[in-house]
Amino acid sequence: MLPHNCILGTGYAVPPRILTNAELENMVDTTDQWIVERSGIRQRHIAEPGSALSDLATAAARRALDAADTSAEQIDLIIIGTVTGDMKFPSMACLVQEKLGAVNAAAFDLSAACSGFLFGLNIADSLMQTNGYQRVLVIAAEMLSSMVNWQDRNTCVLFGDGAGAVVLGPASDQRGLLSSYIKSDGSHHRLLYNPGGSQHPPSHENVDSQLSTINMEGREVFRHAIVSMTDALHEALKRADLTPDDLDLLIPHQANIRIIEGIGKRFKIDPAKVYVNVDRFGNTSAATIPIALNEALANGRIKPGDTVGLVTFGAGLTWSSCIVQF
Ligand code: UT7
Description:
Blueprint: E1 5-13, E2 18-20, H1 21-25, H2 32-39, E3 43-45, H3 53-67, E4 77-81, H4 92-100, E5 106-110, H5 116-131, E6 136-143, H6 153-156, E7 161-170, E8 176-184, E9 192-193, H7 204-208, E10 215-216, H8 218-239, E11 249-252, H9 257-267, H10 278-281, H11 288-298, E12 307-314, E13 318-325
Parallel strand pairs: 4-5, 4-6, 11-12
Antiparallel strand pairs: 1-7, 2-3, 6-7, 8-13, 9-10, 12-13
Helix pairs in contact: 3-4, 8-9
The chain binds oxa(dethia)-CoA.
Oxa(dethia)-CoA binds next to helix 2, helix 6, helix 8 and strand 12.
């Protein structure tokens, strides 16, 4: 059997500007109480209009490289999970490659919405096994503030901006990425989507009718999220020949505290073993998992030898899970 790949270092970066629920009360018909009760979100970080998401992704990547004691030249591959890259093309991964000076890498973006980081981890792991890559950067970076309809209270209170990154390398023992799982169901793509694309290219009319902003059937997405993430976790555990009791920590996608609690109940895991930071960052889409992972390693919630479950869900619909032993 081939050796596992492991996470050698992590990093994250968020814009300095914090948008509070109190500020949102002045923008749309909402209240701090509603947002906290229905989503668990108290604040989110928002990028300045016109700023480059590639700068945030590069900052997160530099921190991950430092933590992994790895130079940019050592990186063989950069994958970025994002749906809000700086430009339509080239990929943001190419922009980050240049900013880092990762001159020996191949680089591409991956579109799986909130599942972008775990889809990226899965693909990176596979390419390392087949192509012999030794050091791979998997980044998730999202600036959903750039595609939120700031007049739509159903969505504008939920999202935040941020970037997270990990450096992968071959493990020297049996630890590392033990298993992973990715899945999609395009038949529900209308539950969460942004129609602005080649079918509706930018025009005054399209911009005026909010055709480049996020549309979401919140209640339906909520229902699918709990079922799909619980199933995905069971699948990844089965593939690693483990049971739920073997998990020391669960890091679920941070979209809504009630979804996180719903997964915990369905999965029958002690709430103390479930990581939560949605209150401070909101839903940063693909970036929620690497941001939480970085925090959990830094604050001691993950200790050497711990087995951690990562699980996410997003537009597509897409969902994904991964079991990692540190
Ligand atoms: O990242 C992956 C994908 N995203 C998610 O996982 C998000 C999934 N969905 C959710 O998190 C929740 O469905 C929401 C937080 C979006 C909404 O919570 P909910 O409990 O499902 O509320 P709802 O959509 O059923 O709306 C309840 C009421 C509605 O009013 P009526 O029709 O009952 O009179 C909404 O109009 O709450 C109203 N509402 C608001 N009220 C105050 C919706 N947004 C707001 C708001 N402030 N911001």
